[in-house]
Amino acid sequence: MLKNYIKIAFRNLWKDKSFTLLNLLGLSIAFAAALLLAMYAFFDLSYDQFHKNKEAIFQVYYTEQTPGGRALATSMPVPFAPALREELPNIKHVTRYMSDGALNLEEGKELNLRLIFTDPDFFEMFTFETLLGSADVLKENSKISITEETAQKLFGRTDVLGQSLNLLINGRKEAFTVGSILKDIPITSGLRFDVAVNFTHSPNYAENLDRWDARNHSVFIQLDEGATPSALTKSAASFTNLHYQGNIEDLKRDGAQPNANGNYLELNLLPFKDMHFADFSGDSLKVSRAYPYMILGIGLLILFIAGINFVNMSIARSAQRLREIGMRKTLGAAKKQLFFQFWSESVWIFLIALLLGIGLSLALESPFRQLFNTPARLTDLSSSTLLIALFISFILITFIAGGYPALVLSKLGTLKALKGKLDLAGKNRVRNVLMVVQFSIAIVLISGTFVLGKQLDYMRNKDLGFNKEEVIAIPLNGKRANRQNVALLRNELAGKPGILSVSASDNNLGLGRDGSTYFSRMGFDYKGRGVATNMLVVDYDYPETLGLQLKEGRTFSRSFSGDSLSIVINEAMARELQEKEPVNKQIILDDSITYTIVGVLKDYNFQSLSKKIEPISMFMNRDWDLYYAFIKIAPQNRVQSFEAIEDAWKRIEPNAEFLGSFIDENIDRTFKRERTMTTIISSGSLIAIILSCIGLFAISMLVVTQRTKEIGVRKVVGASVAQITFLLTKDFLKLVGVAFLIAAPVAWWLLSQWLQDYEYRIELHLWIFLAAGLLAVFIALVTISFRTIRAALKNPVESLRTE
């Protein structure tokens, strides 16, 4: 019996090649798209999930009730972690964590390395496999851990235990001994590094050893088995009140209101497994996996649309097999046998389409990875859990999409089938609902494409308050002292055509090619109340090089020898100080050093566009280092100017990699997620439209087949081609209109919620959704007309010859 089912199934599929090819085309595209999107989404969801202790590890952060509202802080002071370990119960391990850069100083092998300062407990908490040496290596201050990839780059082999290594860290030359070799860090790790060094080597460690007001690193803890985060945060109240008593008193003095627990400063724990999905930029912690789930959802929607297409096309094709069904029933075929016959045909189509989809996804894997800049691979889906989930999904899709038309056809009456009449009027409701859902999905995706594209374009072209097109940023990653390299760059580029000015600071704008970014923030008392500001250490000509606009006062000048004790602030900082005329006002830092405000700059976006402009203060203190050089060039001959700068850098630091980039490129790198979302949703909407068109074409085939005789009669009595075409298309267009009425409010709500994440965003206008609806109507009209016009042009004699 099974052999007969298979034989007849292949015979029928081969007989109607156009039906088979259309279904295989639609389903294979859907399977390929779903597999690639699932690959991307599951890779994102797998971040930091390989750690064995991930359920018990947490990142420590504070919520602070300021007069302006709640603020979050993840940076901790140096004595915080040791005190936490000693004074709070149920903590098994605790480690400090700070990332930085280092330069290997071995002659001829200068290499920039990603370095972390951490405590010995780090390797007890996190699962970074040790290949050679001891996991306790950081207990000895002079020993370090390096990855096998780093060992290969530095020494050409991995068996390098005991080898000496000289590193340049923040301008200090330090000698270390390799104490352990780690297996390369998994690509899904949020903690990435080449070298691990004991935390006692971190910048200003000795100076900050007993200071609770200098915060510069993260802290992670691992709880004892059975301990809960809520119990620890409750027990931490006394710890916070003891060590931050001065901060709390200042908050009360400034008018801050306690939170629901009656606390002004409260310790909180973020589960480490959620860290990749956490956002600390607002006034509350947000943990959201919406992005990967959205991508998975688009993949499922594409499969859903393909399934609808298969149902509609199967029913449309069934008109050609009515007499076969009637004959089979006359000869004694039971409903169950007919069901399995038709379902087996569906299974084979789905199975072949799945194999074609897998092949297509393998062929498109490399272009997909390049387009979306992701290291995800299809092999990431090879885990037993995912394979079982994918197999179950395939069975469900096959059973539902293939089983419904098989059930409908198996229930046809014998006499009607023998007459060749397909009476599915009662089923039109299901067909219409499916079509409305199909086009509603397409309209939502088209609307999303329009809005995401406009938001991305808005962010790219927004005036950020500084010159981003003609300024090149260079990470100072050489062997010499950073300030010395800035001076050498000035000398090398002096008088060069197209080079207008050179400056530097301790932070980049956007995300440079070195991939690092950070913010330095400080608080101090001013006129009896606490204020906070972002800090930026700059060199001469910084505002002029960046094109920052001066509102009042002046910027730093070589004509003023005392500018090392001067600061330049932005308008937001002036508002923070509550000073209408802030120039010449003085602020006192560290309880002893007095700085004078000499100028006020107009506000500019030095952070992400998802945040409002915060206060920032610029310092010229030469005791603080610079990490990035900025070079302003003339708008003409940009390429030649860039090459001249690269040549100058290579003369200064011949062994250090040149990582210069235009600031507009740096800014654009911060939009990676928005670019990816736009591309995925636009690609998804295109695939949804293509599949919807295939389904619509199938429905038009069904309707034309059912109304062939009616078309002939109307032509005989004088109906024109246009009238017949309108008659056949109006019902479809009504369904698309209903889909628009459903999809437009849904799309508006979803997109307005997404835009709330941005401080600077576009306005949602009605024309965006109308354009999406009109585009869907136009595509539907073109698709339907292809079949209906052909039917209207047909000779009425052929149309009437149906009995």
From TrEMBL:
Keyword entries, A-Z: Cell membrane, Membrane, Transmembrane, Transmembrane helix
Record membrane topology: Multi-pass membrane protein
Recorded superkingdom: Bacteria
Residue intervals passing through the bilayer: 21-43, 293-317, 338-364, 384-409, 430-452, 680-704, 732-752, 764-786
The protein, known as: ABC transporter permease
InterPro entries for this protein: ABC3_permease_C, MacB_PCD, Macrolide_Exporter_MacB
GO terms of molecular function: transmembrane transporter activity
Domain MacB-like periplasmic core: start-end pairs: 20-235, 441-608
GO terms under cellular component: plasma membrane
Chain ranges of the ABC3 transporter permease C-terminal domain: 298-412, 685-791
Organism in which the protein naturally occurs: Leeuwenhoekiella nanhaiensis
Cell location: Cell membrane
Main location: membrane
